[in-house]
Each structure stands twice: as C-alpha cells, then as structure tokens.
C-alpha cells in the first residue's frame, strides 16, 4: 500500500466504514519502509476515537498450576515439565490486597486469573466474594479470567459484582488445533457469547508468535469483530522451558508493532491492550505501542513471569505526554438492582499515581 492508500483507509475508518477483509489483507502487506506511515495512520485513528488517554490493568494469579488443558504455550499445563510445579492458591485477602495495590499503581481494572478448564460452582462462590468486595470498594473495576464458562455461570458472576471477563481466542480457528487439543475453538466462542448474553463486558484477544501466519491473524480478528469485545488484549509469546514452544524465537519488535497497527484499523473504537510479552518482544520499542495505535497495557507482573516495575511504566506514559485513566465509581448496588455504569474519570497521571 502507498502512503496515500494507507491514509485514505484511515479516513475511511474515521468516517465510519469498517475495513474489509481484502483491505485488512493489504494492511498486512505494508512494506517495512512504509511501516512508519502505517503507525502514523493507526495513531490518528486512536486519537480520533480515544484521545491521548491510556488505560492500564493488572492481574493476579489466584490459582496457579496443575492445569488440565494442554495449551502448548503455557507453563501451568500439567501435560508439560515446566518450572511451574504443583498447585498454588492465594487467600482471598491476598487477592483483595493485590487489587488495592493495583489501584494504587494506576490500574483501572483488576483481574483474578485461575488455571484450569473452567470454574466449578464452588469456585464461583469462593471468588465471587472477593469480586464483590473489590467492586464495592469503588477503587478499581472487578474482572476475572477463570476459563470456559458453563450455562448460567456468567449470570452468577455478574450478580456477584463481576464487571469484565477475559477469555482469549488465542489464534485462528485453522491454527487452534496446533496449539490446543483438550478443548475447542467453538467452546471458547461459546463462553464469549454467554458473557455477552449476560451483559458482562468482554475482554478477548490473541497470543501471537506461535507459528501463525498473517492470514491467521486476520481470520482471528474477523471472528473477534463478530463477538464485539470491549477490550482486545494482544499478547506476544514468551517461550517457556518445558513447553512444546520452548524453542520459538520472539517476534521482531517491528512485526509486533505492525500487528498492533493492523488491529487498530480493525478495532477503531475498542481498547487495544498490550499484555504478555511486551518487554521481551518489543524491548527498547515498548513505548512505540501507543504510536502504533494501542491505548492500553498491562502494568505489573504477568501470571508466571515478571513485568517491569509500575514506576517505569508510569514514567513511560509521562514521557509520552499521555494521560492515564483512573476508574472511580460508587459502591455497587445490591444484587438485582440495576443502575447505569459510572463512566471512568480522566485524570492527569501525576495525580492518579502519586
């Protein structure tokens, strides 16, 4: 694509006409020499719809290890001999304190993440108490990522105070059986539909660098557009010793940025969150994620790997002249009493994160 074609497509998106599959494929073929133009156009789309604001979220691994699923990228799978041994469970107070720390670090959302196929009803009762407590604090959005949900579980979690749920499709339907065999792509899609039907905000995205090609990346994006997630997290593989993908080399930084820019064209109004693998794959170009169209990132540690310090990330945002969004909301209404959601308040970073 030429400079003129890239920026004409950005104007099309800003004017309200979605990118077609053919146009998305053309974006993936932008040459390296023309990537700066693609980034500029993606950044223009971001600024038009979302302004110069940045959101960040944090997660805690509340249940780690002994996972029954065989995801080839994951150190928690019981199918592989990895550094993550045994089963670790956090206490509810530990998880709540982590949520308050995340709020202090500037995060506007906090996710409780469990390993495993999906939650039992007993686990929903257990973690629902903490979800409700986080929601009632009014300090941070209460989120979770507990795996595949059965019928009725999304409604139960919502009634307990859950506001957002993360469940990534990970890769395309074609490539999925190469990465996961113990459950199906359609089972993941069904969970997303159940969340939507229950009125829970959906966070769903992908993990890149697992041997997929550009067609897979666009196929996945097209399926996600049908789900209409509120947040699209983009992860980049961190190869873990003992997993089938242990020898896979990290993606090049410019390829990661190319992916981000294409996804901004495809998801102009959604929050595009850069999550796992940011430090290892992007290295010195981490701050470029915003120039390539992202507007959100994960602050703090990941599930089984460490991230940068929160202060380093806050400094990065300050250096870019961007603002961080802080969520302040009234305590949740009692169950069965519905009210309009409170809109996040945009505050300067220096006030949000002292």
Tag the structure with descriptive keywords.
354 residues, alpha/beta, 12-stranded mixed β-sheet, 12 strands
Could you describe the 3D structure shown?
- This protein is α/β, with parallel strands linked by helices.
- 41% of the residues lie in helices and 15% in strands.
- It is built from 14 helices and twelve strands.
- It has helices at 3-14, 21-28, 35-50, 92-105, 121-137, 153-159, 176-179, 185-198, 214-227, 253-266, 278-282, 288-291, 310-320, 349-352; strands at residues 53-64, 88-89, 109-114, 141-145, 164-166, 201-203, 206-208, 231-236, 271-274, 296-298, 323-326, 345-347.
- Strands 1, 2, 3, 4, 5, 6, 7, 8, 9, 10, 11 and 12 form a twelve-stranded mixed β-sheet that branches.
- Strand 3, helix 5 and strand 4 (141-145) form a beta-alpha-beta unit.
- The longest helix is centred in the middle third of the chain and has 17 residues, at 121-137.
- It is globular, with a radius of gyration of 19 Å.
